């Protein structure tokens, strides 16, 4: 072998580097490990068209579509993250891709809700008792999200809009949904909403005008990977007719059919949500309504939310030639959110 070849083989730039000093390849994203029980795997196959033997192939197909059609979209492409969108759209690639794009578009277009979305920024709302997740699931395995817009626990007071805007309540809802959807069990089973409207007055209802209603419903239906299996309304006053009149035009028929109004008839509620999973406030046997446990779960996830929602959006994160909002979701400039018109509609319920 020539001296030149020997010198190349023992080039100081290489030979002087120890194994510990050699540049390391970028780390591979964590591989997906299914956490579903056998029963949930069967349920996902039957209800969501999810085939375990094709699961990673389907994820890769969605990942390839994102890279091809939305190369500038700043999004996670991890298996577990993309699976949320495939499951929410029953493994229809095109619909899952649109849901993913809508999800990021909604976050960009409603910064009042999604910017700096972290538990510590919402302590006042969380401590008020506005919402919590019940400790027990319903018979179908759905977590129950309990929302009480008219009640502040402990103090006996009510939500006062001047204390903080309704968008803070909406932020708390999405914070909770983001945490819930991390669970594969929730991705398959979906959730149930229990909304208690006791204490909701005309002045409070008027803050939930058509602009806010359309945005919230548009995101829940077309911009978030969650399956809402039922919405149970209890203790609704007459004013709720006006609230529902505002909401209903924006609901898809399938979702509208999942609304159940029980009034003060808790026996009616118990036909869907059994007493053994409900707190005493709703005629249940599961003890007092506990908000502290769920609040602790959220606060323990502070770092995850900071990483996901508190980072600057890259300048290249855009959707050239593509709509940023789900169909039916409108921008501020496109919506006449006339409070006078809303109050007039609500007054007509009395």
Explain the overall architecture.
The protein is an alpha/beta fold. The chain has two domains: 31-109, Orthogonal Bundle (Helicase, Ruva Protein, domain 3), CATH 1.10.8; 119-305, Phosphatidylinositol Transfer Protein Sec14p, CATH 3.40.525. Helices cover 44% and strands 7% of the residues. It has 18 helices and five strands. The chain has helices spanning 3-9, 12-15, 38-48, 55-69, 79-88, 93-109, 111-114, 123-128, 166-180, 184-189, 202-205, 210-222, 239-247, 253-256, 266-270, 292-299, 302-309, 339-347; strands at residues 131-133, 143-147, 191-196, 228-234, 259-263. A five-stranded mixed sheet has the order 1-2-3-4-5. Helix 4 packs across helix 5, helix 5 crosses helix 6 (93-109) and helix 13 (239-247) packs across helix 18. Residues 1-30 are annotated as: Disordered. Residues 118-290 form the CRAL-TRIO domain. One of its GO terms (cellular component) is membrane. GO terms for molecular function: phosphatidylinositol bisphosphate binding. Residues 8-19 have a biased composition (Polar residues).
């Amino acid at each position: 072998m020539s001296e030149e070849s020997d010198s190349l083989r023992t080039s100081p730039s290489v030979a002087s580097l120890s194994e510990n000093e050699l540049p390391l390849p970028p780390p591979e994203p964590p591989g997906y490990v299914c956490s579903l029980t056998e029963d949930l795997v069967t349920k996902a196959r039957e209800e969501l068209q999810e085939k375990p033997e094709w699961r990673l192939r389907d994820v890769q197909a969605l990942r390839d579509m994102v890279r091809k059609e939305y190369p500038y979209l700043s999004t996670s492409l991890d298996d577990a993250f993309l699976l949320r969108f495939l499951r929410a759209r029953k493994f229809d690639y095109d619909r899952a891709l649109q849901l993913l794009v809508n999800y990021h578009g909604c976050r960009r277009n409603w910064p009042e809700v999604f910017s700096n979305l972290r538990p510590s920024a919402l302590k006042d709302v969380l401590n008020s008792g506005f919402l919590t997740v019940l400790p027990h699931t319903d018979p179908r395995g759905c977590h129950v999200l309990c929302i009480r817009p008219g009640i502040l626990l402990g103090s006996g007071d009510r939500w006062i809009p001047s204390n903080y805007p309704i968008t803070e309540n909406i932020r708390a809802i999405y914070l909770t949904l983001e945490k819930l959807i991390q669970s594969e069990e929730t991705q398959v089973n979906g959730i149930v909403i229990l909304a208690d409207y006791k204490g909701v007055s005309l002045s409070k209802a008027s803050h939930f005008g058509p602009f806010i209603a359309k945005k919230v419903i548009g995101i829940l239906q077309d911009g978030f990977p969650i399956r809402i299996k039922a919405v149970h309304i209890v203790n609704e006053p007459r004013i709720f007719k006006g609230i529902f009149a505002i909401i209903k035009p924006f609901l898809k028929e399938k979702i509208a059919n999942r609304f159940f109004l029980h009034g003060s008839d808790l026996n009616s509620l118990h036909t869907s949500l059994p007493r053994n999973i409900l707190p005493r406030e709703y005629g249940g046997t599961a003890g007092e309504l506990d908000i502290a446990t769920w609040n602790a779960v959220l606060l323990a996830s502070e770092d995850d939310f900071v990483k996901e929602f508190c980072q600057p959006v890259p300048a290249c994160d855009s959707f050239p030639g593509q709509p940023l909002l789900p169909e039916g979701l409108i921008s501020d400039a496109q919506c006449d959110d006339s409070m006078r018109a809303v109050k007039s509609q609500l007054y007509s319920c009395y």
